[in-house]
Design goal:
Helix 2 runs parallel beside helix 4, helix 3 runs antiparallel to helix 6 and helix 12 packs antiparallel against helix 13. Helices cover 82% and strands 0% of the residues. By secondary structure, it is mainly alpha-helical. It is globular, with a radius of gyration of 22 Å. The N and C termini lie far apart (63 Å).
Length: 406
């Protein structure tokens, strides 16, 4: 698990380095902000369309082999991009094609690497392992963003892509040496359940997700939070530079506090032993109320005080939700459940920012934060009340109905 965490840190740092540089590269080639947004959508589109098939592949194929191959393929794409940039042969078409290929590979790589990490710890430590993964992700994000400017400044854009390629190959080289922990859930659970690779289907994964109230509730909580909150890089940027009359430096300070809160939240999330949808909902509702208070901040100092707990609550909620998602389904279904979740999450990530932008156009930055936070808290509260009423409703058996009719 320590080796896996180190490998993921290196990979995350490389990925965020590339992501930071990629937008600048698109702007340099096209001079168009719209093209930059299109490149991001092209890379995300495969997750919307084929994540369920990627999840089925993870359930069907050996997990370590799948993760190692997908990491090697992602490294190859990064090296090809670096070579084309160095030779000045990268145009818009080839960039879009490479982004789409990366998105396709990621539909398999994401669930494979997530579930591989769970195999390295005993079953009861899976929530903690997910928290450690979130912490590594946040640390890699900060490191990668910082290294991007240094790398481009001294070595050029191609070097950032090449460094990301090296990070993928590092992960692929570590995977063969990983061994499942004693008591881990393991990939062999499918065989123990009498399930063969030939019986694994995408339709079964979709049907399982649709019949699982807990997963549907988690999707609802995460969806309303993703649309009306969480996009703090958008809402807080407008709030800081607009009503609070701050500049780029002020927003940089806010972003740093957000990142620090994410790290603190990941540490706290790693201590969760029994995550549940109820915990995720309570944290999301609390985050919505904190967002309301942040929207009413009279000054940058007050906003900074509110931003830290907002980021902490969001990070713990994400860790708890991921733990539920990866532990609630039976082991043989987890790849497909993550595949379905990948498609749902892509809808939110693509639709959330435009919807929030429209809300800001209508209500302003403060109004968007306040209204969005109230919607989140109200929706989760209404769902909790509805669940309570359904649980208390008397259940009449079919036999009793027949006797009454008679």
């Amino acid at each position: 698990m320590r080796w896996w965490s180190v490998a993921n840190f290196v990979s995350n740092a490389g990925t965020w380095m590339q992501l930071t540089v990629q937008n600048l590269l698109v702007l340099q080639i096209t001079g168009s902000a719209a093209a930059t947004g299109l490149s991001m959508s092209v890379q995300a589109a495969p997750a919307l369309l084929i994540s369920v098939f990627g999840g089925a592949a993870v359930d069907r194929w050996p997990r370590r082999t799948t993760a190692a191959v997908s990491q090697a393929l992602l490294g190859t794409v990064a090296f090809v991009t670096a070579l084309m940039v160095a030779l000045d042969r990268l145009d818009v078409t080839s960039l879009m094609v490479l982004a789409a290929v990366t998105g396709v590979i990621a539909t398999v790589d994401g669930p494979a690497c997530s579930l591989l990490g769970n195999d390295l710890v005993p079953r009861e430590d899976v929530p903690s392992a997910i928290g450690v993964g979130a912490l590594v992700h946040q640390a890699g994000r900060l490191t990668g963003a910082a290294l991007a400017g240094v790398t481009v400044g001294f070595l050029g854009t191609a070097a950032a892509y090449a460094a990301n390629g090296v990070s993928f190959l590092f992960v692929a080289s570590v995977i063969p040496f990983l061994r499942p922990a004693r008591g881990a859930i393991g990939h062999r659970a499918a065989a123990e359940d009498g399930v063969t690779r030939e019986t694994i289907s995408v339709r079964e994964g979709l049907a399982f997700f649709a019949r699982r109230p807990r997963l549907l509730a988690l999707a609802g909580v995460t969806g309303v939070s993703a649309v009306f909150g969480r996009n703090y890089q958008l809402t807080l940027a407008v709030l800081v530079t607009g009503p609070l009359a701050g500049g780029a430096g002020s927003f940089g300070t806010v972003s740093t506090v957000l990142a620090a809160g994410g790290i603190v939240g990941a540490v706290l999330g790693a201590r969760l032993r029994r995550p549940s949808v109820r915990v995720v909902g309570a944290l999301a509702a609390a985050g919505g109320l904190l967002q309301v208070v942040a929207g009413m901040s009279p000054s940058l100092a007050v906003l900074l005080v509110m931003v830290l707990p907002m980021a902490v609550v969001e990070s713990v909620s994400d860790t708890a939700g991921t733990a539920v998602l990866q532990t609630d389904p039976p082991a043989r279904m987890r790849g497909r459940v993550l595949g379905v979740w990948g498609s749902i999450g892509t809808v939110w990530s693509l639709g959330g920012p435009p919807a929030l932008g429209l809300l800001m156009e209508l209500a302003g930055a403060r109004g968007a934060l306040i209204v969005g936070g109230l919607v989140i808290a109200a929706a989760i509260g209404a769902g909790h009340l509805l669940r309570g009423r359904l649980a208390r409703a008397p259940r009449v058996s079919p036999v009793a109905n027949l006797e009454t009719a008679a």
